[in-house]
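discrete fold record:
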Amino acid sequence: MNLYINNHSFHYELENLTRLFYPNEKIKVIKDSSDFEKPFINTQIADKLIAEVSIGDFYKKSESDICIESENERMLCEMVYKILCELTDVTPPWGMITGVRPVKLYRQLKENEGGEKADAYFRDKLFVSPKKVELLSLTESIEKKIIDLSHRNSFSLYISIPFCPSRCYYCSFVQSSVERCRHLVEPYVELLCREIEYTAEIAANLGLRLETVYMGGGTPTTLSPEQMSRVLSAVNSSFDISSLREFTVEAGRPDTITKDKLISILENKVDRISINPQTLNDEILDIIGRKHTASQTIEAYKLAREVGFNSINMDLIAGLPEESEKSFVDTLNRVCALDPECITVHTLSMKRSSTLTQDGTAINRSDAVRTSKMLDYAFEKLVDSGYLPYYLYRQTRMVGNLENTGWSKPGFESLYNIYVMDETHTILGCGAGAVTKLKSPDDSYLKRVFNFKYPYEYINRYSEQLERKKEIYTFYEKYI
């Protein structure tokens, strides 16, 4: 697909908009050219706004008067959007929205102009469906209360455990199979504990206030109980945790969960865990490369309750390959019957580096329709079961251009998930692949400091890693 950008700079949004309708095609962006090669989408600002589309036997051109400068981009996108809706006979439920954080945009509009005008803008200007506007409104109302808990000097801590028992076919995260990298785990844990101590020293020197801790990955429960205890103890002994509101460990894969590990986690002041089935259909689990069964998920959940956890999240994925709507409904019903405090419903995202995409799996229209029905059912079922949406985000190449939504019972929302998605405050990252996100307390400015991605890099270049951390001091100098 050729996308022509003439006499304007709105290529990023128009490219993402085109991808909503053609998720499997390579989109070639060509600037300032009148030599059009089919199939093409041409966008131009001259004495008028111009959008024309020529794909196969279809051709349509649209023109509009020049808008005020801030509206030209949205108007060009609207013109292309309407033509592509007509051509493909597809109306995306999120309309023209391509961004990751629609709740953040909704909140800004609501704060400036009120809820009714925010609703109207999303419906009438961005063409978001009434159902998704309702979801946005519900989510924002809960998010706002939690965002307001953050202080000027607040921060959260993210700890990365980049090891998994195997790689799921839909996953593109940087992680390493424990079987292949077992020799790296112990030196990694030792250095991670040292980085945690060093990071705590920086936070203390800057007078930062720790609000939440999240250990993710990868799969943190690939660590042994003793290794898990060492990492968690490093957090508790190094940081001032007097202001800590939440401590989460992503247990994740049920086949890595044992009673000894759960006890180790609980004894180290962790008050929230995730146990993630993705689906309770054993055939689909096998297709996506998960090396556990539905019964193992249920056993792990019951074991966590027995040990004493009273805040458990469970992740599901809508739109998995070959999973029917009926199978998804069955999974969600069975998970709701377990009665976890939180249920996160993700939409399958076709990451370019995932095994699924590299094997040639593509997004098609029937997948989008099927997945949309799954999410519609999830909305009704979860609300009826006493859950409310508390955070929401979107990713590129999602099936049906849909969304990921965290649902919780009142009072059990994950603060960390909200803070990281809203970019509320600083996130200090420790471990391979972790990203420190330094948030200005005065405005929306964000600076990122990247850790080395792979465990072997992290281990071999550890001293360089600590040098990078000194950028935190430089960032905060102007605010202290």
